[in-house]
Amino acid sequence: MLKAVKNYFGEFGKLMRLPLEFWATQGLNMLFMLMYFAFATISTLHSSQDAGFSDEAAGILFGVFVFGNAALMIVLGPVVDKLGYRKTPLIAAGIITVGMLGVGVAPYSLGPTPIGQTLLVISYIIVTFGVGLMTPVVMAGTKRFSDKETQGAAYNVWYLSMNVGAILVVTIDLFRRPLANKPTVDQVLAYQDAGGNVTLLLFFAALAALCWLIVFLFIRRVEQFGASEDEKKVKGEEEKKGFVQLMREVIRDKDFKRVFWLLMITIPAHMPFVFVFVLFPKVWLRVISPDLELGFIESINPMIIVAGLILFAPVVKRFNIYWILVVGMFIGGGSILLLAIPPQWTANDTVRFLEPKTLTSLLNLARISSFN
Predict the structure, then answer these.
(1) Secondary structure (3-state) at 353
(2) How far apart are CA 99 and CA 208, in angstroms?
(3) CATH code of residue 22
(4) What share of the chain is helix, strand, coil (3-state, %, to 5)?
(5) How many folded domains does the chain comprise?
(6) Residue 261 belongs to domain spanning
(7) φ, ψ for residue 237, nearest 5 deg
(8) Burial of residue 219, with CB atoms counted within 10 A of its CB: 0-12 exposed, 13-18 middle, 19 or more buried
(9) Of 102, 96, 104, the residue nearest 46 (C-alpha)
(10) Distance from the Cα of residue 321 to its chain's centroid
């Protein structure tokens, strides 16, 4: 195991020769993931508390947002090839900034009115397009700014930076809670009524604007790193193709079809994780405590992922990838049963020594499903 961990970090030495654009892409990835996961954490809370949506409607709104992201990643992927690796993230970050401002300001300025709710839905659509455009450019950019020798380590860094961004979700506690060290429930509710969630959404808009700045300042050269002149010529000819032609080629590609249907088959395994991901914030605040450090609780899962990535990523190479997927899906699906343990059971003699907040944190460790 120690040798595997050493080899894992040893591969990163190869990345030192990669261009500045690669590291800018990873910085962009980290900030983008911080914004995305933090937004996902407070989305349903904001829709219910500030916009007047029911729990069901808030869940549907966020569910459509997540589905839209996944669908647009496929549809808008060829746009990256058409617009390039500089224009696309600039446009995407600009769209997200505008959308986040709309999500935050619309309910706060208009209240839980039909007009306010309509503007909120429109703002969600705007953010969905921005996220759907940004996600493939970050993933493809990791490959674009690395070569065949470094791509394995490059994608390790991509996944690592993504989860570091998710860990930084802990920063939302600074915005959600009053300035007091130990606020009362009344203080928290008063802060929320005064626009605490709006402050967070303005923070997300600022993160999107910072993503735009990173692209503007540091992503200059967009050609494939390490490509020969002939390969660059072929890439240039591909980028001149129309959107429809690119989509046809992608759909007909055998590797694309294999990956697509593999992902379709694994949807049932992902659904429980996505469901509890949407459900968790309201469970934490309503069942455990309204002044819970929501950002810290949500950051536990990516902390486990980072540790698992370092410890197990070198080891799993020795096993068949399909068996890893099957076993991982069983672990992920089974872990949800642990999260179904009622907090009231803390009154039982077997767990009386644990505070509800501590027990909740331990149960949250069961979210191992993200290891896939």
Answers:
(1) coil
(2) 10
(3) 1.20.1250.20
(4) 80, 0, 20
(5) 1
(6) 2-371
(7) -70, -35
(8) buried
(9) 104
(10) 23
Q: In whole angstroms, give the CA distance from residue 28 to residue 154.
A: 14
Residue 183, CA distances (Å) to 38, 59, 268, 293, 361 in order: 21, 28, 40, 11, 20
For the chain, what is the mean pLDDT? 80
**CA–CA dist 366, 336 (Å, integer):** 7
Predicted confidence (pLDDT) per residue in 310-357, tens digit: 777 667 777 887 888 888 888 877 777 776 777 666 544 444 444 555
Q: Is the dihedral of CA 347, 348, 350, 356 positive or negative?
A: negative
Structure tokens at 61: 């709104």
Convert the pLDDT of each residue in 70-127 to its tens digit.
888 878 877 887 788 899 999 999 999 999 999 988 887 887 889 989 999 999 999 9
State how far the Cα of 143 lies from the Cα of 139, in Å rounded to an integer: 7
Is residue 151 classed as helix, strand or coil in its secondary structure? helix
SS3 112: coil
* DSSP letter (8 states) at residue 224: P
Residue 64 C-alpha from the chain's centroid: 15
Look at the chain and count its residues.
Answer: 372
Which contiguous run of DSSP H or E holds residue 36? helix 20-49
Tokens 């605490």 — which residue?
196
Q: What is the pLDDT of residues 203-222, one digit of tens each?
A: 899 999 999 999 999 998 88
Q: Which residues are CB-contacts of 310 (< 8 A; sequence separation ≥ 6)?
A: 5, 8, 9
